[in-house]
């Protein structure tokens, strides 16, 4: 009824121009696509065998042949970073995807049906939230044994309540709209309402959250591998490489720096993408 | 009689990134509001009525261009610095909005919020400020004001919250009160009470009120004079009774005729002709936007 | 005059957030109303009076705690499966907010078609044709069917909402504040459309609103709700001119009129 609503938007348009969601998404997405291509094409582009030990090249400085130098066992750091990226992205992305696949239906059901469905789902998931993420992951691995698959499962479990809660909240908001009640009155079954109206409209925030969590997943995976609980040697992983490089940090900093940089770049990619998506698809700020 | 609020040829437009020649939201509005008068401005959405109110308060966004002259108590508001505007807002004019919850801090006792406003304007100690806040709460009709001083906003009903916002707006004894759709969010019975309150305050304190609303009924209840806005322009101003009895502008006539309250039951209501129909304009605009999107 | 809908002794309370919290007053407290075929019942009340809850109960969207909703001689709560779908076809809602009543991701034509698809009315080609007829019927250019709700004006959106309600050829329309979010000039057009449809199609309706001026204009009968109960019910003229209940008098006195 009043026209005030339109004025601040006109004002905000000019201000937010510098960090437009489009640009953030492009930069973040661009970084990730590049990293994904590198990871996928690892066998084609890696100049050396990442596991080939060359005694005469131990802790070799960067050179034309080995641009990132070589590590304690004389393995080519560049090739190892490329393969490690592959392993780390694989674990973090599949962990978040697995978490999403469970969290979306759980959050939808909790938010849409409410009442006992909601309390059962929400209270159960809250139990997971009680534990700090790292502690939970370590406990998980202590029971099931170390390895990249187990690390992925641990990360997926940790993120399940977070993603489910975001999905539940946005489902609650969407469900309040009259078109949901209207759709029921126009003869749609609950399943049909959920699939055609609720899910598509409630999806934005959870995608944003998933993108942000992917950055954390990458760090978490690196942390687990650093502690020797994630991806197992000799398969290269970014966290494992950090652990290796720590001991020779002074003599051969390149062993430490390049995997570290790879983590930073990948995390930045996910964060930019997540922030861009947030501004574009989650104006209400449902995602955390 | 001197004018508390005087506007001469006021225009407001908004610079946007894409438009070279911004369309005016308010265009050539001139009017004088006298001391102790309630002046109602009616208009549909997009008529520019709220933009006009915000221009008086100096609350427009930075991309707004204001032309003409707006004088509050003979002081020019257009072109005033932010600091000067802030002090003017505190000392001479107050504003209340449609949604009282947005004007109140949800975590603070309402009494303290009023007392805070009082202390911002008068050199009084905390105890006196509290006493004055309680008196104000009583004056706007909060029963048992002393006991409710410490309650947070959500403990009050919507009508009571609007009363509290009015109390806070009165804390600095403003000469001009700008009320933008103050009763739109309220139930009819509560609306009547809040309008009576505004009317009583005007009589007791001589406060001048600029009342912005879309509701012809609301202006008819309390305003002394009414201005009708459409497309950013002030089409006519008249004494309230005169406007309802003899509307001179065709838009005003159409607006009054379209009100179902006056028409015989079950008859078709006369529809506002396309030239004055805000809806047709909006549809034409959407059509142009759609055509533009195709061309791109 | 034949009876289409009878609501008997309906009660409904909403659970409080905390089990030990103070119980809120019931949303519906022993509510009974009757709607005759082709007639309009105006349901007047302020926020929290329970008028919208009553509408949702009649639509079968909210289950009452006790009491009965009897539509065309059949008790609605007992229905399930095919019979429930058949009932839903015959009672359709129109909502207040023209933003919230249409899925922002659906072209508006699809929203109008939704009930045809869900109830399986006609062949796909029939449905396509019927949607265009409905657009025509409510005074919308059929070319708008492919647009998203954001690309329509408020009045156009409300016409789409009405077309969606008419799609399954209902006998009763529950209109919850259908014009309160609209500008005055649009409001008159939508009220005219609703009255025309009623005359042409013989649809009965329950018109839920807080606006006595509007309800007086369109209703044959008026029921006044206050805190979950119906305090007064009768023919429009009688209620408006000779209100019996104090609350009705307060409400009438509060209508803003020129001094």
What do you see in this structure?
The complex is a heterotrimer of chains A (288), B (296) and C (259). Chain A has 288 residues and is mainly α. Chain A has one domain: MetI-like fold. Chain A is built from 11 helices and no strands. Chain A has helices at 6-15, 21-40, 42-45, 77-113, 115-129, 133-144, 148-175, 178-185, 190-226, 238-246, 254-281. The longest helix of chain A has 37 residues, at 77-113. Chain A is elongated, with a radius of gyration of 23 Å. Chain A starts with 5 loop residues before the first helix and ends in a 7-residue tail after the last helix. Residues 1-17 of chain A have low confidence and may be disordered. Chain B has 296 residues and is of the alpha/beta class. In chain B, helix 5 (126-139) crosses helix 7. The longest helix of chain B is centred in the middle third of the chain and has 18 residues, at 188-205. Chain B starts with a strand and ends with a helix. Chain C is α/β, with parallel strands linked by helices and 259 residues long. Chain C has a single domain (3-101, 172-254), classed as 3-Layer(aba) Sandwich (Rossmann fold). Chain C is built from 9 helices and 10 strands. In chain C, the strands form 2 sheets. In chain C, strands 6-7-8-3-9-10 form a 6-stranded mixed sheet, sandwiched between helices. Chain C has a 4-stranded antiparallel sheet with strand order 2-1-4-5, covered by helices on one side. The mean pLDDT of chain C is 88. At the B-C interface, helix 8, helix 9, helix 10 and helix 12 of B face helix 5, helix 6, helix 7 and helix 9 of C.
Show unreliable segments of chain A.
1-17
User: What is the helix fraction of residues of chain A, given as a range?
Assistant: over 70%
**Biggest protein-protein interface?**
B-C, 44 and 40 residues
Tally of domains of chain C: 1
Please give the CATH architecture of chain A: Orthogonal Bundle
Classify the fold: give the CATH topology of chain A.
MetI-like fold
Q: Quick check: average pLDDT of chain C?
A: 88
Count of alpha and pi helical runs of chain A: 11
**Strand fraction of chain C:** 15-25%
Oligomer: heterotrimer
Question: Structural class, from helix and strand content of chain A?
Answer: mainly alpha
What is the helix/strand order of chain C?
A: EEEHEEHEHHHEHEHEEHH
The CATH superfamily of chain A is known as MetI-like
What strand line-up does the widest sheet of chain C have? 6-7-8-3-9-10
Q: Classify the beta-strand content of chain A into a percent band.
A: under 5%
Q: State Rg of chain C.
A: 19 Å
State the major sheet of chain C: 6 strands, mixed
Helix content of chain C: 25-40%
Instruction: Indicate the CATH topology of chain C.
Output: Rossmann fold
The name of the CATH superfamily of chain C reads P-loop containing nucleotide triphosphate hydrolases
């Amino acid at each position: 009824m009043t026209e005030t609503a339109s004025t601040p938007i006109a004002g905000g348009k000019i201000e937010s121009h510098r960090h437009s969601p489009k640009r953030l998404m492009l930069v973040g997405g661009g970084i990730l696509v590049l990293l994904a291509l590198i990871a996928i094409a690892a066998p084609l582009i890696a100049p050396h065998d990442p596991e080939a030990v060359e005694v005469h090249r131990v802790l070799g400085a960067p050179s034309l042949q080995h641009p990132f130098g070589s590590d304690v066992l004389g393995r080519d750091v560049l090739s190892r970073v490329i393969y490690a990226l592959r392993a780390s992205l694989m674990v973090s992305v599949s962990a978040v995807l697995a978490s999403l696949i469970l969290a979306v239906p759980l959050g939808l059901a909790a938010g849409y049906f409410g009442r006992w469905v909601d309390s059962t789902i929400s209270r159960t998931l809250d139990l997971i939230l009680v534990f700090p993420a790292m502690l939970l992951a370590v406990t998980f691995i202590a029971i099931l044994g170390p390895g990249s698959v187990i690390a992925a499962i641990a990360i997926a479990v940790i993120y399940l309540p977070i993603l489910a809660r975001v999905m539940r909240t946005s489902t609650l908001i969407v469900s309040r709209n009259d078109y949901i009640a209207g759709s029921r009155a126009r003869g749609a079954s609950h399943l049909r309402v959920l699939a055609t109206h609720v899910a598509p409209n409630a999806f934005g925030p959870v995608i944003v959250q998933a993108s942000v969590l992917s950055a954390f997943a990458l760090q978490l995976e690196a942390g687990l591998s650093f502690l020797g609980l994630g991806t197992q040697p000799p398969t290269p992983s970014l966290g494992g490489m950090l652990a290796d490089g720590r001991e020779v940090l002074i003599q051969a900093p390149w062993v430490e720096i390049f995997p570290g940089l790879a983590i930073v770049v990948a995390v930045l990619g996910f964060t930019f993408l997540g922030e861009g998506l947030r501004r574009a698809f989650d104006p209400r700020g449902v995602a955390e | 009689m001197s004018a508390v609020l005087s506007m001469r040829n006021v225009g407001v437009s908004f610079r946007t990134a894409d438009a070279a020649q911004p369309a005016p939201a308010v265009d050539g509005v001139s009017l004088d509001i006298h001391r102790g008068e309630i002046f109602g401005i009616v208009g549909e959405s997009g008529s520019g009525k709220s933009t006009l109110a915000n221009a008086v308060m100096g609350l427009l966004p930075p991309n707004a261009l204001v032309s003409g002259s707006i004088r509050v108590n003979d002081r020019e508001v257009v072109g005033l610095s932010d600091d000067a505007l802030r002090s003017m807002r505190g000392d001479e004019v107050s504003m209340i909005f449609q949604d009282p919850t947005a004007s109140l801090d949800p975590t603070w006792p309402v009494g303290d919020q009023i007392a805070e406003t009082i202390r911002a304007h008068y050199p009084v100690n905390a105890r006196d400020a509290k006493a004055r806040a309680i008196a104000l709460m009583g004056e706007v009709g909060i029963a048992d004001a002393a006991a409710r001083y410490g309650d947070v906003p959500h403990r009050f009903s919507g009508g009571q919250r609007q009363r509290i916002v009015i109390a806070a707006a009165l804390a600095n004894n403003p000469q001009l009160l700008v009320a933008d759709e103050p009763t739109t969010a309220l139930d009819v019975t509560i609306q009547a009470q809040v309008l009576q309150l505004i009317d009583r305050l005007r009589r007791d304190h001589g406060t001048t009120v600029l009342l912005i609303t879309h509701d012809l009924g609301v202006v008819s209840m309390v305003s002394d004079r009414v201005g009708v806005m459409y497309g950013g322009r002030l089409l006519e101003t008249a004494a309230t009774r005169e406007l309802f009895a003899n509307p001179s502008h065709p838009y005003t006539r159409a607006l009054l005729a379209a009100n179902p309250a006056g028409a015989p039951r079950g008859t078709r209501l006369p529809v506002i002709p396309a030239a004055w129909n805000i809806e047709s304009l909006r549809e034409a605009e959407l059509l142009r936007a759609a055509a533009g999107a195709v061309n791109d | 005059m034949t009876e289409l809908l009878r609501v008997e002794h309906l009660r409904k309370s909403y659970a409080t957030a905390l089990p030990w919290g103070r119980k809120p007053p019931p949303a519906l407290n022993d509510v009974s109303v009757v709607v005759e075929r082709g007639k309009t019942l105006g349901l007047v009340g302020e926020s929290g009076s329970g008028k919208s809850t009553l509408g949702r109960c009649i639509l079968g969207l909210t289950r009452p705690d006790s009491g009965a909703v009897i539509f065309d001689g059949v008790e609605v709560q007992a229905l399930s499966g095919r019979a429930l779908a058949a009932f839903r076809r015959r009672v359709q809602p129109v909502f207040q907010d023209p933003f919230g009543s249409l899925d922002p991701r659906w072209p508006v034509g699809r929203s109008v078609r939704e009930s045809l698809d869900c109830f399986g009315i006609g062949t796909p080609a029939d449905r396509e044709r019927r949607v265009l007829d409905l657009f025509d019927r409510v005074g919308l250019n059929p070319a708008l069917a492919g647009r998203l709700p954001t690309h329509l004006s408020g009045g156009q959106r409300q016409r789409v909402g009405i077309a969606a309600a008419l799609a399954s050829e209902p006998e009763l329309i529950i209109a919850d504040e259908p014009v309160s979010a609209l500008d005055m000039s649009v409001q008159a057009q939508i009220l005219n459309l609703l009255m025309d449809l009623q005359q042409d199609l013989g649809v009965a309706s329950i018109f839920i609103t807080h606006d006595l001026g509007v309800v007086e204009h369109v209703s044959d009968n008026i029921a006044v709700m206050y805190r979950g109960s119906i305090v007064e019910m009768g023919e429009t003229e009688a209620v408006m001119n000779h209100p019996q209940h104090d609350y009705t008098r307060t409400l009438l006195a509060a209508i803003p009129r020129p001094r």
